[in-house]
Structures are given as structure tokens and as C-alpha cells.
Design goal:
The protein is built from 3 helices and no strands. The chain is mainly alpha-helical.
Length: about 90
């Protein structure tokens, strides 16, 4: 069993402010440290038939698979964020 410390953790002022901001409902993508030019990788599991379909579409259209998926997913994410933001 892990011991619990009774000593308060030493947080930087920035960490404290960031934690407080997130508690107030700020969205993580609004953090000034988040950069639009940084691309992150997301792994996607597709069944073999769908992977082959995606490859076929990419071959037929000469559009890279990553671009095909990104162009479909980004508008959906924005739509979901808008819907969820309305309800809160």
C-alpha cells in the first residue's frame, strides 16, 4: 500500500492558475501553450475490409489516407464541440 504524504505538493504558480482555469470550464485547446502547427498522431483501428476500402479510395482519388480521414473527422469534432458547448 502506498503511503500518503501529509505535506502539500509544491505547485508552481502557473500550474495552480492552469488548474483553476480548467475547473472554471476552460477548454484544453484554449490553453495558450497549444499550438495550431503541431500535428498529433491518433491511431485508428479499422477492420481489414474497411482498411482496404480506405486504401482503394485513396488510390482512386490520389488523396492520402490521412487527409481523407482528417477532412472527415475535423468537421465532426467541431460539430460535437458546438453541440456539447450548447448543453453546458
Amino acid at each position: 500500500m502506498a503511503k500518503m504524504s501529509l505535506t502539500p505538493s509544491k505547485q508552481s504558480v502557473d500550474e495552480f492558475i492552469n488548474a483553476a482555469g480548467q475547473a472554471n470550464g476552460d477548454k484544453p485547446w484554449d490553453d495558450p501553450k497549444v499550438r495550431e502547427d503541431v500535428m498529433k498522431l491518433v491511431s485508428l483501428r479499422l477492420s481489414e475490409p474497411y482498411m482496404l476500402k480506405l486504401q482503394w479510395i485513396s488510390d482512386q482519388t490520389s488523396i492520402p489516407q490521412q487527409k481523407l480521414l482528417r477532412d472527415l473527422v475535423i468537421p465532426w469534432i467541431d460539430e460535437q464541440v458546438a453541440k456539447l458547448s450548447e448543453t453546458k
